Amino acid sequence: MAIIIPMAAISCILSLLLSSLISQVSAQFNTEYCDNNKGNYTINSTYHNNLNTLLSTLSSHTQINYGFYNFSHGQNNDKVNAIGLCRGDVKPDECRRCLNDSALTITQLCPNQKEALLWLNTSKCLLRYSHRTIFGVMESSPGFYLTNVNNVTEADKFNQALSNLMRNLTVVAASGDSRLKYAADSAIAANFQTVYGLVQCTPDLSETDCNRCLDGAISEIPSCCGNKMGGRVLRPSCNIRFESAIFYDQTPKLDPDVTPPSPPPSSFTNTSPKESNNTITIVIAVVVSIVVVAVVSLLGLCIYLRRKKARKSPTVNQDDDDDDIEISQSLQFDFDTIRVATEDFSNSNKLGQGGFGAVYRGRLPNGQMIAVKRLSSGSSQGDTEFKNEVLLMAKLQHRNLVRLLGFCLEGRERLLIYEFVPNKSLDYFIFDPVKKAQLDWEMRYKIIRGIARGLLYLHEDSLLRIIHRDLKASNILLDEEMNPKIADFGMARLVLLDETHANTNRVVGTYGYMAPEYIMQGQFSVKSDIFSFGVLLLEIVSGQKNSGFRHGENVEDLLSFTWRNWRDGTAVNIVDPSLENNSRNEVMRCIHIGLLCVQENLTDRPTMATIMLMLSSYSLGLPIPSEPAFYANSTARSLPATSSWGHSSRATANQSAQESENENSITEPYPR
Length: 672
Fold this sequence. Notes:
Blueprint: H1 7-28, E1 31-40, H2 46-57, E2 68-73, E3 80-86, H3 92-109, E4 113-120, E5 125-130, E6 144-147, H4 155-174, E7 181-188, E8 194-201, H5 207-218, H6 221-225, E9 230-234, E10 238-243, H7 273-312, H8 319-325, H9 335-341, E11 350-353, E12 357-363, E13 369-375, H10 383-393, E14 404-410, E15 413-419, H11 426-430, H12 441-461, E16 465-467, E17 476-478, E18 484-486, E19 493-495, E20 502-503, H13 516-521, E21 523-524, H14 526-542, E22 549-551, E23 554-556, H15 558-567, H16 584-597, H17 608-616
Antiparallel strand pairs: 1-4, 2-3, 3-5, 4-5, 6-9, 7-8, 8-10, 9-10, 11-12, 12-13, 13-15, 14-15, 16-19, 17-18, 20-21, 22-23
Helix pairs in contact: 4-5, 5-17, 8-10, 12-14, 12-17, 14-16
């Protein structure tokens, strides 16, 4: 007996089967990671509620049309940070749908993890969240990859074309702005075969970090997708993809400026071209008139306030110094506010003492913790260093620089107010026989790269070119996640972007970290900071102070010990015994970089940009270093007795930071 099945039923069955197949295929391309090592939350807890609130509203910001969302919700340990990133060619509506679907999916796949990540729908969008800081942090783990099963023909030519394409795309993507770091293009490989490529970073990364993330992802192609017609490498901070067929759409064009929220629709919808031109002319005339009146009024107000200030305090000697600080008046704190915050500068809140004066912990009325430097009346540093630090730090913003919140001037009081950094300074850990064990190699390498990023910003990426002149372990502060922050800019110098070096009659800094051309001739440049960085890098690797490396019963200066063991092939003697052996190649590379930084000839030292490449790209070969400065007789060489250099003429070149005069050692950073 024949069974007759209606065509409508067959169509329905086929549709259901096709839908199920598509669903299974799509699910295969959903890549999730639920991190149980970063902690868990309980249902209906504060963290859980904050997470639900953040995920439900993440993509509701309709003014964002560039596919990148980074928001936080909550406070302290219950704070949730989330990033949503859509592929650069995905349209805004489709992006928001993808992220909304991701928000539902990720909580089902990771029901109670405080940190999770999801690539949804063939990696068209990424959603990740965490209780820790993830904004502006380059992360390459966890990593995933997908591979096309088909092999290419003429693999060598295909791989060469692919390599060139991906490197070119990396340059384009990394140079993008804070809205979009994305690039896609194609290249011709063998037999007129086309290879299509796409690279993308989360736009909160710096250009250097984006380059580093993409370089790392591209370097995985041979192991994951070698000689294949397609592949993808997915990382939390970046992703790449290549195929032999086009898979992306045209990239939307973004306005040169950050797109503001859309204005309400105008009630005039049928304006003729002539009326439009007249309207524009009238608007321009009105705007120009308003601007002129505003400028004239502002100038008059400034002149009035300055004269009034001069009348009120005609006998104050620091008027000229204060004039420059007027550009940062928005940063000025009331003295009584700081006095109350520090409990009248009580000893119980005192964090340390340095050349500048004492450093105190404080709490503002809004609950924010602060660190306050108070210039002491007998300080060898004074108004010049105070003004220098205010004017420089007000212009500098980077996650690896300590953040200046403001300052205070009242009578003879000089206060600098900084963000409070809870984990003290690097020297507190690295030179302590017990505490250094808390810094495994992964943590130390993170600190090294963070310091390098901060210096790169000072030397090349900021609008100003800043030479720190006192980079040392005690001037590297560590936040709650042990991220390094360069501190103490009282002795820093601003130079023109096209200047290679400058000279000074007043050599300041800390012996052991100071470059030879600076000590002997008063000549400083970015290369003198490089020298200090090299010494600091070797201190981090060895866990020993530069002034006295102890190996068994023997004590010698760090540079001599490092060079002698490097030359003799026993560089393992330099490494801190508390470190494990599983990162030995990386440790040896850091010793090599450190020796390149402390070469006597400043032209032989690498730039910070090159150092960043050395730290991030292991395919980059390193030159052979020459022997370091002061190696030959480092314990005997002393400074020339030049009276104009003040106290510095009395100190020897191998003095430690603790032995230097206040003239040569900057304020000990907070907290101590």
